[in-house]
Amino acid sequence: MAPEPLLAQGLTPGSLDDQVLAVPERRPPVSWIAAFAFTASLAGIGLLCMAYTLYTGIGAWGNNRPVVWAFDIINFVFWIGIGHAGTLISAILLMFRQRWRNSISRFAEAMTIFAVMVAGMFPLLHLGRPWINFWLFPYPNQRGLWPNFRSPLMWDVFAVSTYFSVSLLFWYLGLIPDLASLRDRANGWRKAVYTVLSLGWRGAASHWQHYEKAYTVLAGLATGLVLSVHSVVSFDFAVSLVPGWHMTIFPPYFVVGAIFSGFAMVVLGLLVVRSTLGMSNIITDRHLDLANKVVLGTSCLMAYSYLLEGFTAWYSMNPYIHHAFKNYVHGVYGWAGWLAIVCNVFIPQVYWSAKARASVPVMVGVSLAVLLGMWMERFVIIVISLHQDFLPSSWGIYKPTLVDFGILLGSFGIFFSLVLLFSRLLPVVTTTELKSDLAKASAATHG
Amino acid sequence: MSELKDNHLSRRRFLGLMGATAALASGCSKPDRGAVVSDSKRPAGSVPGISDFYATTFQQCLDTHGVLVRTREGRPIHIEGNDLHPLSRGKAPLSAMADILRLYDPDRLAKPYMDGKPAGWEGCLEGLFNAVTAEKPKGKGVLLLTGALVSPTARALVSDLAAAVPGLKHAAWEPSLSETETSALKACYGSGRRPRLLLEEAKVLVTLEADLLSPDKPEQVAGFASRRTGRDMSRVYSVEAGVSLTGAKADHRFPWKPSSAASLAFALCRALSAKGVPLPPGVSASWLKPFDLDDLARTRSADPRLLQKLVEDLRSSRGSALVVAGPSLHSEAHAAAFLLNAMLGAEGRTLDASLSPEPEPLESNAYLSKILASAASGAFEAAVFWGADPAYAFPDQDLWHAAVSGIRAKAFIGTHADETAQPCRLILPANHWLESWNDFEPLKGVLSLQQPAIGPIFDTLQGEDILQGVLSRLKPGQPASYKERLMARWQREVYPGSALTSFARFWNASLHDGVLSRPASANPPRRLDPKAVAAAAKQADSAIREGFEVILSPSPTVADGRYANNGWLQELPHPMTKLSWGNAAAVSPGDARELGLRDGSLVALSVRDRKVVLPAVIVPGQAQGTVSSCLGYGRKTGTVARGVGVNLYPLLFDGPVFMDRAGVQATGGSAVLPFIQRHHKLEGRNAVRTLTLQQASGGPLSTLPHLSRLMPDQRFPGHKWAMAVDLGRCVGCQSCTLACQSENNVPVVGPERVLKGREMHWMRVDRYYEAGRVLFEPMLCQHCDDAPCETVCPVSATNHSPEGLNQMAYNRCVGTRYCSNNCPYKVRRFNFFEYAGHTKEPLDLAFNPEVTVRPRGVMEKCTFCVQRIDEAKAQARSQGRKLKDGDIVPACAAACPAGAIVFGDVNDPKSRISQAFRDPRGFRVLEELGIKPSTYLAEVTNPAEGHGA
Fold it and tell me: What is the ipTM metric for this complex?
């Protein structure tokens, strides 16, 4: 059986331009303004809570001893993970010549950028003295001080900053031909802005040649990053002594989890963009179906990881690790462990049904469940492992404060505000790639 | 300077010199705050940056202790024991160490007040004089209510005053001191002289509702601990309701209702006598008939064989056995204990009354009630309250209010405007003891001097000086000040008048040492009065009573409430419940089940017609049907003290003796309690190890095979500092925690943040309930050779010194808190807020200038008192010698009354620490992680044969 076509019938390069590139030229509809007002207020709440934290200290949060890391690092790991789908789609799927990525890659890449931006706030914010965060970078200074390269946090600094710069370059490079198209259509101040942004792109054959080369090189770099960034993030935990963290399975387990939650976020975002911008002919059900299959696949991998983690814990014969794992599903925070398992392992199983993969309400529900589940998973790993470690005398209970929740909400507010701005100001779909798809399709029909 | 002469002053050297000069200049020019001595002209012998030590004496109720005050640039900053003092022997009580905070308490009365308005001393003293000496209608008098007056000079002053002021009635009253022992002593021996307990001599020790191991009695802790290691260790039996530190350390503990403690003691006498131990002359065996050990064991569900074993142990250790009854027991229990000690030949061996002074007379609550009743009916025209706080601690507050309204002129002398100060017209601020002169004679022939370590910080006078001022106005020819009175008394009565030494030299030498020992005539040997024993045996009954029995005792931290405004002591948890900032009713797990209680459930405690509601805390080991709690909380005054805990004094009708027929009911409400330790069981982990005496004589404890490692071991070629904690000696008193807090400027965070789990103690004493026993384990930074915290710090703020210290560079710390995650001992503390920066003046003067005050966002932890290491090194260098073992004593080790903490250089094979490292009892907590922490020595218990765990 021939697969369903990726793009709707009747799409031509001209209509594609009119549909995608005209968006930034129009005034935003009321629904967009309402949505932006909502996300911006969430962002405002978050920024206020952050300002309060910077003013008073980490004490504004629920963090304590033994749980010195909590929402701050949970949010960091969560948002870094969200970014992973974008990189996977743009880099790995490109390398594997998965053409279906073309309709969604721009959006997913933008999500990566925004997610990493949001994630990047947390390591800075969680410092006791954030104003000296630059001490984490190896810059020559008169004090002759140098960071400690043995610390996984140092590795994090490099992993995340590399990840952000490569993702940004990759995204921007892909944008250049589309920015040039926008420039050609626009006039007035818009034209000036797009002229600068499009870096003198003329669509010459030599431009295309260089573009393709650079794009492939960056894709190659990003491919490694998909696997390395979250591996390095997982080292923060795996390299430490904490029972429940000290495990070799963490790097692959974290990467899978990241892609899993990232795809859930991509599906959610695409649904919103597709309906608000009327792009169901470009972002078709088939795209969503494929993305949902990735969610299902990674969910199964998560289940495998959980089982293997449990097995390793049991097999270790280490009473401290046994205790930590018992705590994941038993004890004060047992509900969190179960919530993570239900959301990450059981709920996505509905995607075995093709009907479920095509149903918008199911997609929304499952994607939200996966996001919740993956956030809870980081809660389980961080808070539950920390609250009872080696010496029972120092065991304690962690309770988040309103400021913690404010910052969590704010991170979503900032992320979605950026996504909404992006959807109005830049082409959400890579028109150049789609045009080549269309050209190939028409060649196939007429040839 | 040779560099200068040779014209070879390098740029680096020049900058170094300039920097030092600038630092000196800025250091010297910074003015000291307030009225504290400002060194515009440096006093001879005082060098900025070098500590001066003053020997003085700390008094609390009836106890006095010789202490050394460390001062820096004129400010007292730390207190340790005076090792020249024959009783203190270098150990300071917990309260003395903590009371340095009261010196700088922002709540202190800073100037005199009259009618609620600030007034000059001149007018206030005039007012006091007029009030005391005014013409009074016939039959009316003046009441002088004080705390225990222990100083012989102060007592002489008060009796001189009483002689000079007609109608002056002096009453000394301590609300938390029980009089039962004194009255039993008087009845049985004809004198209230309290014998010294020579615990180091006791092979078999039996305590009846007595806690000998209070950190405020360091000499007892030292004596006890010295018998808890080695082949000849003691065996301790503890009979008590609440779990005391003594009970926790005991080899066998019997949970026991206090009402039948006396019958148990008499039953032990009878059993001993049946085994052939002769009764003292005049004591008839028939008096002991009603007391049968097996019956008691049955009704109290105690193991009769173990009680028989106790009798056997006592019999076989005659001459080295000791029985101690506690203050909350009635006098018949004390009499029974005296009889036991007499039978066991304790006198002169484990008990020594030969040099005990006649105790200060104290008034009971009943007697004070009479005085207050007469005050209410107008018997007193004026009253002076000095060091007594009846408005807080007198049980019958209605009577107190009536008495207050019956007295026309009221004056208050004290450091703080406490509850009693409220109705007073004249408020006269008194000096802290670190600003005062006095003398004490804790033992005949041991004279202990109190001298100021600082001039008065505020516009205050010593209480004695205020009374001296009144006396001087009445009688001409009086010494100008109390200090002169003190010196005059010493010149008259103490100075031997030798031609070789002038009095000035003698006085200065005595002040230098803080103590003077001179020959004294021993008391005549005391003899047990059989009639008193007969009366006591008649009084003692073994009937089982209905209802709960309640034991209220002074708090182990804030004492009778006098230290309630001390943040250090409020945050120092109760050693057993680990509850900070407040008191709770300790109930047994069985009773808790029956009443449906959990930790924090509110209970109504009713005794006779009084009822108090307070939170409950479940304590395994608490005797069923008993409730224990602490006095000293629920104060109405003081920024720190106000509203912390519940005032239980209203229940103390008859003073602090146990109360029976009490009711305990759950009210249904509950409170969240600020526990410093939140999990109480060891969960099967081997973090604390205990051996029996037999096991201890086996091979080395550490059974871990040598771990093969990829990395080479760390090398420490010079010194390698390390610490060992002997769990056999440690009694869990937490003196170390407090000493560390004082030495290292550790902030107090308050109950809300303790609840959140953000307390800052660098050193803590973990307490576990395990297999029917209580285990203590002081926990502090282990300074692991392969410290896991160091590798994870992204900025190397925590790193290893070449001498084996795990050190923190606060300046470099950015606050990722990763080190705390990776510390398996969780001894690192994070400044979640700017704690130290909010210190109110003049509290900041209590800071140790050698220790950085940490800002917000920075991690901190134990440094092994690196400032003391450096100080000792500098001292050795300036004396041109090498460091020797014992030169460096960290604050915790110096404070530990049990001598459980050993510190030193493990590279020196002869040092005490090296010996401790070789001790077969040695083990390392979480050794299996391979991080090479410090060493602990396992606790050894000495259970009776066939009864060991």
Answer: 0.93
Q: How far apart are CA B616 and CA B627, in angstroms?
A: 9
Which among B681, B675, B892, B680 is positioned nearest to B781, based on CA atoms? B892
* Residues B463-503 pLDDT 10s: 999 999 999 988 888 888 999 999 999 999 998 887 778 99
**Residues paired with B385 in a beta bridge:** B145, B412
For B:774-813, CB contacts with A below 8 A are: 777, 779, 788, 791-796, 812-813
Whether A284 and A103 have beta carbons less than 8 Å apart is answered as: yes
**Sign of the CA dihedral running B188, B193, B196, B201:** negative
Q: What is the pLDDT of residues A173-202, one digit of tens each?
A: 999 999 999 999 888 888 999 999 999 999
- Give the burial string for B465-497 (b: 16+ CB within 10 Å, else e): bbbbbbbbbeeeebbebbbebbbebbeeebbee
Q: B493-546, pLDDT tens digit by residue?
A: 998 887 778 999 999 999 999 999 999 899 999 999 999 999 999 988 766 677
The answer to whether residues B272 and B343 touch, using CB atoms and an 8 Å cutoff, is: yes
Q: Tell me which DSSP letter residue A96 carries.
A: T
Strands B585-587 and B438-443, how do they pair?
A: unpaired
Write the DSSP symbol of residue B826: -
Q: Is the pLDDT of residue B322 over 80?
A: yes
> What Cα–Cα distance (Å) separates residue A235 from each residue in A17, A112, A375, B790, B797?
45, 21, 18, 16, 20
Phi, psi (rounded to 5 degrees) for B783: 45, 50
Instruction: State the residue for tokens 């970014």.
Output: A83
The side-by-side arrangement of strands in the sheet containing B204-208 is B252-255, B235-240, B204-208, B321-325
Segment 714-753 of chain B within 8 Å of chain A by CB: 753
For B376-424, give the DSSP string. HTT-EEEEEEES--HHHH-S-HHHHHHHHHH-SEEEEEESS--GGGTT-
Closest residue in B to A388 (Cα) is: B679
DSSP 8-state code for residue A200: T
**0.80 exceeded by pTM:** yes
Q: B456 to each of A138, B65, B431, B468, B903, how far by Cα in Å?
A: 53, 22, 7, 18, 37
* Nearest residue on chain B to A389, alpha-carbon basis: B824
Which of B793, B814, B821 lies closest to A242 in CB terms?
B821
Nearest chain B residue (CA) to A320: B685
The answer to whether residue B9 scores a pLDDT higher than 50 is no
Cβ within 8 Å, pair A390-B687 = yes
User: What is the rounded distance in angstroms from the CA atom of residue B676 to the CA atom of residue B574?
Assistant: 9
Q: Can you state the percent helix, strand and coil of chain B, rounding each to 5? A: 30, 20, 50
What integer is the mean pLDDT of A423-434? 85
pLDDT of residue A4: 62
For residue B838, list chain A residues with Cβ-Cβ distance below 8 A: none
Q: How far is A225 from chain B (nearest CA, A)?
A: 22
- CA gap B78, B894 in Å, rounded: 11
Token pair in block for residue A173? 């490079």
pLDDT, tens digit, 9 for 90 and up, residues B720-761: 999 999 999 999 999 999 999 999 999 999 999 999 999 999
* pLDDT tens for each residue of B144-178: 999 999 999 999 999 999 999 888 999 999 999 98
Q: Which tokens sit at B943? A: 């259970």
Find the length of chain A: 447
How is residue B11 written in tokens? 């740029």
Q: In what order do the strands lie in the sheet with B438-443?
A: B438-443, B446-450, B515-517
- Please check the confidence at residue B775 and state whether its pLDDT lies above 50: yes
- What does the alpha-carbon distance between residue A368 and residue A360 come to, in Å, rounded to a whole number? 12
